[in-house]
TrEMBL record:
Residues 15-207 form the HDOD domain. It holds the Pfam family HDOD. This is HDOD domain-containing protein.
């Protein structure tokens, strides 16, 4: 798909901004001279974010053997890549003008898919688990952006989906010039995220990536695709669980060559991990 991302961004207009602390952390992580102390000092400028990062670091999701009491020790123990994931996850809530039921569902969808993608990546060794977490976190960032820029139109779209008029992919072009996948990829490009994150966001639903030419990217995107389907089946980020989806029939499952007998246990694991850790991420 040939997409002029700048045209897409211009069509959206009002964009949410990345929290200043998150932007600074990402910049610091690109500097090889950055220290754990320097990163901790940056995160500490946002007390609410600092508290949330520490809460998540001490959650069962990261299974630390001892309690992490300072940001610097969290960075040393968890690593810089995990810190980036935590900061971005903790910042996600702030990318909304308000935080009502719809925003809560979008947040749960993002965190649920991030957790699910990491569980799938670890269990089946389909992708780097930290990269899978971020890809899952941002797969529907386009929905957050559309809800931010045109909340009335986005809420009409979601109501039409709930009324059974079609799925999001079928209906969103009726309300917006570009799909949430294209908008999400364009915004991530503007925010200078990695090409793999941009591409996995763009193709999280259609898996339109050459498996032979880009096997690593395909497996990452397929991991996110499966995690998203599992979240839908569990009702994470949804009004009601999606009982129609047959996980075993998914293209992502077949292409990854997964053991079908392990899918029910994987679904249960994601349910348990999400329920145990959702409050840590929400803050």
């Amino acid at each position: 798909m040939n997409v002029d991302f700048q045209t897409v961004v211009n069509s959206v207009g009002d964009l949410p901004t990345m929290p200043a602390v998150a932007v600074k952390v990402i910049e610091q992580l690109q500097d090889t001279s950055t220290s754990a102390a320097g990163l901790a000092e940056t995160v500490a400028h946002d007390p609410a974010l600092s508290a949330r990062v520490l809460k998540i670091a001490n959650s069962s999701f990261y299974s630390m053997k001892r309690q992490v009491k300072t940001l610097e020790s969290a960075i040393v123990l968890l690593g810089e890549r995990t810190l980036r994931s935590l900061v971005l996850a903790a910042s996600l809530k702030g990318m909304n003008k308000s935080f009502g039921l719809l925003e809560k569902m979008l947040w749960e969808d993002a965190i649920g898919c991030a957790i699910g993608a990491k569980v799938v990546a670890r269990r089946f060794e389909t992708a780097d688990s930290e990269e899978a977490f971020l890809s899952g976190l941002f797969r529907h960032i386009g929905k957050v952006v559309l809800n931010y820029s045109r909340p009335d139109a986005f809420q009409e779209l979601m109501q039409a989906v709930y009324n059974g008029e079609g799925d999001v992919q079928e209906l969103e072009r009726k309300y917006f010039p570009f799909s949430h996948a294209v908008v999400g990829a364009a915004v991530l490009k503007k925010w200078n995220f990695s090409e793999s994150l941009i591409e996995s966001t763009l193709h999280h639903a259609d898996l339109n990536i050459d498996q032979r030419e880009e096997p690593k990217l395909f497996r990452l995107t397929a991991t996110v695709h499966l995690a998203g389907a599992i979240c839908g089946k569990l009702g994470i980020g949804q009004r009601i669980p999606d009982t129609r989806t047959d996980l075993a029939a998914l293209h992502s499952v077949k292409a990854l060559g997964l053991n079908l007998s392990e899918l029910p246990d994987t679904l249960d694991s994601i349910r348990v991990v999400f329920n145990e850790n959702r409050s840590y991420f929400l803050g």
